[in-house]
Design brief:
Shape: elongated
Structural class: alpha+beta
Distance between the termini: 15 Å
Largest sheet: 4 strands, antiparallel
Strand order of the largest sheet: 4-5-3-6
Number of helices: 15
Number of strands: 10
Length: 382
């Protein structure tokens, strides 16, 4: 189950991606194969994924230890997997569903399983059209995404019932059944439409989910957000979940003093913006924030900037306490084989929009891709 700040979170979505794979393999080659698959999938999604602002945790893909005895079996074939805590923004969950549908269309060999804290939540969207045999009690390990469509493995009525499985099937049995009998497992059109209606509008909905707000914040905080806009979610969450220990850091403001403030436009998700704007916080006058009156047109940018600065100050204090690094970038050699392969995939998928290599826009896109790639590598190592 996903966790947040040491607390168990009930809002999570977990996903497994099963590429076609021969179980007789060399461990080193298998690891390389799954890393290449992961980089290809992320490159395919790059245009909508790289700049997306997540509520809590980002979509990420990790590889199982393909060299272990548990990773290759009928019960659990090797796969890429991830678990994302989406917190208060359920649109993050459905954006992930959209991503999974997209890569299943681009890579037709994939079988994908996606569940949340309620189990097979995709079926909830199509509840009015489900066959009588398919319900929460019988759906375990039966529902998957394949080639852009929902598949569900029927319950076998007899031993000779081809394309169906009795009882609760293993994931390995389910994946193999869909590969062999996809015509039998494909759900009816009404079910397909009901589920896809929930993700209709992406990727345009990504831009619609953003809010731009002016914030009067310390220059160091402004620089962090310019370098990595996705840090906004960490700052907002840190401020909204502050406790008495965190407030001690906010009274000191060692790293983000109010004397260095500048006016900047900051990009939020609408959910993050609503969260932070609703927070009521009266800072200690000694700190020097000098927030204008509530009826002043300057109040909102001053108030937002102060809250974000406090969020960043809390993050630095927590990192120092835990002995962790505060920088989010991994040092990456430019000749790294995986980065080169990922960059090649980006070019193939049209990420650079026909921009000339070395141009300003090309370099901006390259910088964003490199930052995203470094975060992805970090997530895979955790």
């Amino acid at each position: 189950m996903a966790t947040q700040g040491g607390r168990v979170s009930e809002e999570y979505v977990k996903y497994k991606i099963f590429p076609a794979f021969d179980v007789v393999y060399d461990t080193k080659k298998a690891k390389q194969y799954f890393e290449e698959c992961r980089d290809s999938y992320l490159a395919t999604l790059s245009n909508v994924l790289i700049d997306y602002i997540w509520q809590n945790e980002a979509f990420s893909l990790k590889t199982f230890d393909v060299g272990s005895s548990d990773s290759v079996s009928e019960l659990s074939p090797p796969c890429l997997h991830g678990c994302t805590n989406y917190g208060d923004n359920c649109e993050d969950e459905w954006f992930i569903v959209y991503l999974l549908f997209e890569i299943s269309k681009e890579f037709p060999d994939l079988i994908i399983q996606v569940q949340d804290e309620d189990g097979e939540f995709l079926l909830i969207e199509a509840a009015d059209f489900l066959p009588k045999w398919l319900n929460p009690e019988t759906a375990e390990n039966r529902v998957y995404i394949h080639q852009g469509e929902i598949h569900a493995i029927p319950i076998a009525k007899s031993i000779s019932d081809v394309g169906a499985l009795p009882g609760t099937p293993s994931v390995g049995q389910a994946v193999q059944t869909i590969r062999s009998y996809s015509c039998r497992t494909r759900m009816p059109v009404k079910i397909q439409r009901a589920v896809k209606k929930r993700i209709d509008g992406y990727p345009k909905k990504v831009r619609q989910s953003l809010h731009r707000g002016h914030c009067y914040l310390p220059v160091a905080a402004a620089a962090l957000l310019q370098h990595n806009p996705q840090l906004i979610s960490m700052a907002v969450q840190a401020f909204c979940q502050r406790d008495s220990i965190d407030m001690k850091a906010c009274k000191m403001m060692k790293h983000f003093p109010p004397e260095t403030r500048v006016m900047r436009e900051v990009i939020f998700s609408r959910c993050l913006y609503a969260q932070i704007i609703q927070q009521i916080y009266e800072p200690d006058p000694i700190v020097g924030w000098a927030i204008p009156p509530h009826n002043s047109h300057k109040f909102k940018p001053y108030d937002l900037g102060m809250k974000l600065a406090c969020g960043f100050e809390i993050l630095v204090a927590q990192a120092s306490t835990n002995g962790t690094r505060t920088d989010s970038m991994t040092q990456l050699e430019i000749n790294d084989v995986r980065w080169s392969q990922y960059l090649k995939s980006l070019k193939t998928k049209g990420y650079f929009q026909d921009e000339i290599e070395g141009s300003k826009i090309y370099n901006q896109l390259l910088s964003s891709a490199l930052k995203y790639y470094c975060r992805a590598v970090q997530n895979d190592c955790r």
